[in-house]
Amino acid sequence: QVQLVESGGGLVQAGGSLRLSCATSGRTFSSYAMGWFRQAPGKEREFVAAISWSGVSTYYADSVKGRFTISRDNAKNTVYLQMNSLEPEDTAVYYCAAATAGVYGSTWYRDGRQYDYWGQGTQVTVSS
Prior knowledge:
Blueprint: E1 2-7, E2 10-13, E3 18-26, E4 33-39, E5 46-51, E6 58-60, E7 68-73, E8 78-83, E9 92-99, E10 117-118, E11 122-127
């Protein structure tokens, strides 16, 4: 079992920044990939960013590339999402997810089915 707890969401003005954290417990954190997804009201969940188990490889949705940065601290069992230059379109509930059973395919990072544990989500609201 893996438990994921997100924090750091809130209300911010357009152009501002937030840093999301996802603390994990359970299986060895350093052995699996992590991802961030988001879901806006009335929309489907979408991929935001992902990071390999080692932290060497990172992946981003085109809509956040250059503005968001995913990172991990394996000593603290935590993954982060630094969000800069926020836009009203970034408003959503943000979820972190863990892929503890391995990942498959070249685009595994954007496939929600590859992640077997999910957090409860944290709300991010960007005002214009």
